Amino acid sequence: MEPLKIYFAGDLFDSKDLGGNVMLAAAIEKCSGGRYQVMLPQNGECEVLERTSQSIRDADFELLYNCDVVVANFDGHDLDSGTVVEFCFARMVDMPTVLLRTDFRNSGDHTLPDGEPWNLMCSHFPRTKVLHINSMVRYHECRGKTADMIQCLKLFYDSIAGEIVGSLDQVVSERSWLKGTELLTQYCMAVKSIGGSLGKRLTDEKLKLLTASKIASGLYD
Fold it and tell me: Theoretical Cys-Cys bridge with 215: which of 26, 64, 118, 180, CB 3.0 to 4.6 Å?
């Protein structure tokens, strides 16, 4: 069976973001034994020929809809707005999603009994699993196992990746509210609602092939 493609949504604006994304992506692929393949939007940024905000946006949406599942980084006092938009459009077609937070700070609506450390409007969606990992605690656990900082980082990312893979396995196994017979129509509506050049990138013919492959993967009945 072909690996499920992960759209890795999150910050990609500085050296820590870019390097951390690459290390975590590699760890996820390794820990999953090839069951998941991580697609990093940052790898396609430089390949967009027409450097406009819309062309970059549309290329990211094209990559999103060509993937099967989503891992969205929900770190920070304020969530990255682009990540939130991508998460919302992934929900339109019920892509299995893991919301990953390694930031140990509290913010948002965390004081509510069922609140998360972000705005409540980003919570309580179907086929979505929230994964909280205290990165400082995890880092010191790994640091206590080795004095070698390179090995410490490897242990750190491997441990986070293992939990992500476990969460993905859980959310992928959940039944979708979308039937396979409805999937093409839903994707067509989502693409139209995004507008821009996405309709040219994801033509009706491409969407037929795309949704057929998603149905064949077992993600939709």
Answer: 180
Supply 103's token pair.
Answer: 């930031």
- The token pair at 173 is 């196994």
Reported as a single tens digit per residue, the pLDDT across 119-131 is: 999 999 999 999 9
- Rg over alpha carbons for the chain, rounded to the nearest Å, is 18
Which residues on neighbouring strands pair with residue 37, listed in sequence order? 5
Query: Is 201 within 8 Å of 58 (Cβ atoms)?
Result: yes
CATH of the domain spanning 4-216, picked from 3.30.2310.20, 3.40.50.720, 3.40.50.450, 3.40.50.300: 3.40.50.450
